C-alpha cells in the first residue's frame, strides 16, 4: 500500500511516500529554518504562507523521485493535529483536495503518533507493545504503546515542553534558531558541575514532569549575570541545563520500565536528537537489560515519512476521514479534544 503523506504542523513542509508503513520510497522536505532564524523563532503567518508555496511542488517531486504516478497512490495521509493552526490547515486542505481528486481514502494522523512511528521506519523489527518517551518542541510525555493505535499516557509535562525550554534558553543566550541544536553542541564543551540548576521532583503522578522552574532559574541566572557584568561560562551553563533536563526525563523512564515490566523503550521527537539525552537513556536502559529504539537524526525532526508510517496502521484500524476533516491546534494523542 503506497501512502502519500503530508506534514505541515510547524515550519517544515514535508511530503513523503511510504509503502506498507515501513518502507520510505521518498521523503521530500522544504525547511523554513533559515527564514525564521531572522526572527529567533517560528512566525506562524509566515510559516503558513510558505507551506502554501511549497506543498504542491513537493507532492509532484515526491511522485517523481519515487518513480510513481498518481494512479500508484492508494491513500493520502495528513497531520491533522496538533500544531500551528494555520500551518496544519494548509496540509489538511491540500490532502483533502488530493484525496478527492484521486478518489483515494483520506487518513488523519496525530502528529505525535507520527513521531512514535518514525521508529518503525528505523527498526523494521519493532512492534508494540513498548514504552515511548516523546520529547519535542511542544510535547513531553511517556506513552505506553499497547498497539499501533492503542496508547496510554503514563505521564506528561505539567507546563512547558522540554524542546520549548531548549529553544528559549538558546535564544536568550544569543544562539541561532533552533536553539536546541546549538545548545547541545555548546554543552558538549562544558562542565555541568560549574552551575547548579533545579530538577523537578515526582509529584502525585510520579511520571509527570515540570520544566518551567528550570527554564525560569536558567533565564534568571543569565539575566543576573548580564545586569552585574559577570561573565558566563556558556558551554558549562548549557551542559548543566541539558543535564537537568535529562535528569528529569530519564529516571521517570526507568521507573516506567521497572513498574510496567516492559523491556523495550523508544524515543521520539525533535529533542530525541539531543546527544546527552540519547546517551543517558542508552546507559540507563542497558543497566535494566532493556532495548532502546532511537530514530536517526533525520527522522527525529518533523517529516512526512513518519506520518506515512503511522497512517498505514491507522488505515488498518479503520481510522479514515471524510471531507469534513478539520485541523486542530491542540488534541490529545488519544484523539480526545483538549
Topology:
Blueprint (H helix, E strand, L loop, with lengths): L1 E6 L4 E8 L3 E9 L1 H5 L6 H23 L8 E7 L3 H18 L3 E5 H12 L7 E6 L4 E8 L2 E7 L5 H11 L6 H9 L24 H17 L5 H27 L3 E5 L6 H14 L2 E3 L3 H4 L3 H13 L22
Helix pairs in contact: 2-3, 4-11, 5-6, 5-7, 6-8, 8-9
Q: Describe the sheet with the most strands.
A: 5 strands, mixed
Helix content: 40-55%
Coarse morphology: globular
Per DSSP E runs of 2 or more residues, the count of β-strands stands at: 10
Number of domains: 2
Total helical segments: 11
Terminal residue distance: 33 Å
The CATH class of the largest domain:
Alpha Beta
The CATH architecture of the largest domain is 2-Layer Sandwich
What are the segments in which pLDDT stays under 50 over at least 5 consecutive residues? Answer: none
Order of H and E elements? EEEHHEHEHEEEHHHHEHEHH
Class derived from helix and strand content: alpha/beta
